[in-house]
């Protein structure tokens, strides 16, 4: 007998990789294109597991509705879990799992892809050349070599990004409330407080989870501390950054460039084809007008290796929990 699993907010690549995972034959995948919210929780009726992604709403009401529908396990097919109320899940007796380190390389490499494209104006050069415009005016970048990078958060992704920066010959400053001094010494990286990191860095890259402490860590006050002309990269969670403050800092030139893979109000916009629609988000529309802003729509995770690993861990955990076994080590929240 196959087990029904309700899978929310799916795209073709989710369906492809989850269907191909080892053990997938045990499941009857109910792939939904809509997101989880209270009103859509009933779509999980009869399923043991609800599998969700970054913009699904797993607050107290949707979780209660899922529990009422018979769900026992919430399987996040991502690393971040800021969209899940863990207390409410616990009270309802729901097991919550995630996929913590499916491919920090995918996310770290995308961070560099964004920074290099932004700095060397590849996004502009690509369009120019296609228009037979071979002029170089306005495309001047800077050498990363010899510059200072500030890495906020030295967990799985931040550590890799810091090491890649070192490979470019950059000086790397880092901040993390749980520093790893052995790793830092091995790679020639210096831990400092955020104030020093902001003041010294030519490039600031954020690799922290979204929590009440980290929300709007880039705000009017922190932007005042940064080195004029610094470049900001955020591939972690949109709400780490106060968008209005960033727009002001771009207008004054305090920020020299911004690369974003995540956006505070990305829900309902990122991952969707809105090319035939009127953009309703004025701040996103404003951001897109800056020549020194580069945005991708939450695609840092999107490599074959990462999708395969997400599908493997998610599938194995669903089976294990259904069989009353413990989830894979380090995946339970
Ligand atoms: P991780 O848990 O391995 O590392 C996070 C690090 O942040 C830890 O070392 C932690 O100590 C540190 N930290 C916590 N609070 C901090 C603070 N206030 N200041 C500085 N550091 C702090 O996580 P990871 O795998 O490196 O991922 C980081 C985040 O990236 C995830 O939480 C997720 O939100 C996001 N992410 C985005 C994508 C994407 O596709 N864009 C993909 C994966 C992860």
For the structure shown, list the relevant keywords.
globular; Rossmann fold; alpha/beta; 16% strand; 333 residues; 7-stranded parallel sheet
**Order of strands, widest sheet:** 8-7-6-9-10-11-12
How many strands appear in the DSSP assignment? 12
| SSE run | EHEEHEHEHHEHEHEHEHEHEHEH
Question: How much helix is in the residues?
Answer: 25-40%
Please report the number of helical segments: 12
Q: What small molecules accompany the polymer chains? A: nicotinamide-adenine-dinucleotide
Q: What's the mean pLDDT score?
A: 96
CATH class of the largest domain: Alpha Beta
What is the total number of structural domains? Answer: 2
pLDDT under 50 segments (min length 5)?
none
Q: From the alpha-carbon coordinates, what is the Rg to the nearest angstrom? A: 21 Å
In what range is the share of β-strand residues?
Answer: 15-25%
CATH architecture tag of the largest domain: 3-Layer(aba) Sandwich
End-to-end gap = 29 Å
> In the CATH hierarchy, what is the superfamily of the largest domain?
NAD(P)-binding Rossmann-like Domain
Tell me the CATH topology of the largest domain.
Answer: Rossmann fold
> Pairing-aware structural class of the strands and helices?
alpha/beta
């Amino acid at each position: 007998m196959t087990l029904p699993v309700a899978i929310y907010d799916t795209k073709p690549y989710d369906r492809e990789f989850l269907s191909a995972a080892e053990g997938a034959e045990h499941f009857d995948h109910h792939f939904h294109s809509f997101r989880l919210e209270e009103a859509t929780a009933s779509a999980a009726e009869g399923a043991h597991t609800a599998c969700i992604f970054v913009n699904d709403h797993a607050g107290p009401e949707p979780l209660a509705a899922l529990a009422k529908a018979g769900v026992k396990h919430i399987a996040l097919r991502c690393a971040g879990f800021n969209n899940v109320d863990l207390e409410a899940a616990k009270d309802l007796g729901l097991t919550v799992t995630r996929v913590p380190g499916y491919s920090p390389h995918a996310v770290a490499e995308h961070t560099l892809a964004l920074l290099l494209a932004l700095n060397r104006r590849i996004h502009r050069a690509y369009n120019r050349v296609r228009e037979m415009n071979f002029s170089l005016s306005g495309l001047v970048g800077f050498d990363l070599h010899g510059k200072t990078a500030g890495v906020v958060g030295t967990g799985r992704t931040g550590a890799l990004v810091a090491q890649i920066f070192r490979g470019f010959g950059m000086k790397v400053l880092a901040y993390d409330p749980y520093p790893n001094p052995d790793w830092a010494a091995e790679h020639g990286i210096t831990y400092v407080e955020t104030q020093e990191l902001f003041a010294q860095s030519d490039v600031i890259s954020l690799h922290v989870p979204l929590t009440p402490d980290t929300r709007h860590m880039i705000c009017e006050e922190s932007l005042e501390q940064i080195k004029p002309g610094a470049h900001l990269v955020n591939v972690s969670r949109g709400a780490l950054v106060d968008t209005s403050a960033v727009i002001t800092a771009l207008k004054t030139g305090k920020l020299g460039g911004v690369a974003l893979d995540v956006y505070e109000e990305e829900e309902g916009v990122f991952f969707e084809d809105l090319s035939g629609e009127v953009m309703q988000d004025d701040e996103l529309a404003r951001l897109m007008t800056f020549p020194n802003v580069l945005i991708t729509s939450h695609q840092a995770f999107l490599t074959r290796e990462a999708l395969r690993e997400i599908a493997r861990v998610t599938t194995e955990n669903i089976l294990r929990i259904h069989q009353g076994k413990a989830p894979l080590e380090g995946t339970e929240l």
